[in-house]
TrEMBL record:
Protein name: Probable transcriptional regulatory protein DLM86_07190
Keyword Methyltransferase set for record: no
Domain TACO1/YebC-like N-terminal, residue spans: 3-73
Gene3D superfamilies xrefs: 1.10.10.200, 3.30.70.980
Species: Paenibacillus flagellatus
Length: 239
């Protein structure tokens, strides 16, 4: 299962190199989550998930506060949540999640990114059935045995738990996201290296070198789009 964490690390590394764009996307996501419920993360589980993930990307407090203040105040921007499914080189599979205030722009730019980079946009359901929504939580400073003991004692069920580099990575059902974090926080964990609700492929593929280069261009093009929040795929990047 380590390959799944490697793909998340690859995504985080890419995003760390484009902080201003990523911070802007988080601002939109926090605003939308806060507008859908209470602007208080303790009363709004969706907002709490976004804020926990924002911490792992070091999103500045000023951006978080600005988005929350906008949601509490007169902000009336309307965003739609959209999911696109498509294919990259060699039949690779891609899911694109978007938040947009202009649906026509979103679908046009996503389709263009696919077609210009060797991919194609598919129909709803053509790809998503090959992915599972998963909570992925990473931490340092404890062994996998210690983490397992903490979670068992707290009565938290997980799908898998592995050592990866200097981190322990916990994979769990989405509804266990907060339970895993709260159990670890009670045990003294204060920071997480990853805290994601993500889509993980059931099977991963490795592309030949030329196809991988084209695939990476496609992923970069999609992640650069204003309306795109998350991109998931089933390609295992080479070293």
């Amino acid at each position: 299962m380590g390959r799944k964490w490697n793909n998340i690390k690859e995504k985080k590394a890419s995003r760390d190199a484009n902080t201003s764009r990523i911070y802007a996307k988080f601002g939109v996501e926090i605003y939308v989550a806060a507008k859908k419920g209470e602007p208080d993360p303790e009363a709004n589980r969706a907002l709490k998930v976004v804020l926990e993930r924002a911490k792992t990307y070091n999103v500045p407090k000023s951006i978080i506060d600005r988005a929350l203040d906008k949601a509490k105040g007169s902000g009336e921007e309307s965003y739609e949540e959209l999911r696109y499914e498509g294919f990259g080189p060699n039949g690779s599979m891609i899911i694109v999640d978007a938040l947009t205030n202009n649906v026509n722009r979103a679908v046009s730019t996503v389709r263009s990114a696919f077609t210009k980079n060797g991919g194609s946009l598919g129909v709803s359901g053509s790809v998503a059935y090959m992915f599972d929504e998963t909570a992925v939580i990473g931490l340092e400073g404890k062994t996998s045995e210690e983490v397992l003991d903490i979670l068992v004692e707290a009565g938290v069920d997980v799908r898998d738990l592995v050592d990866e580099d200097d981190s322990v990575i916990v994979y769990a059902d989405p509804d266990q996201f907060h339970a895993v974090q709260e159990a670890l926080k009670r045990a003294g964990v204060t920071d997480f290296t990853v805290a994601e609700l993500t889509m993980l492929a059931q099977n991963y593929v490795t592309l030949p070198e030329d196809a991988q280069a084209q695939f990476e261009k496609l992923i970069d093009a999609l992640e650069d789009l204003e309306d795109v929040q998350q991109v998931y795929h089933n390609v295992e990047f080479g070293e």
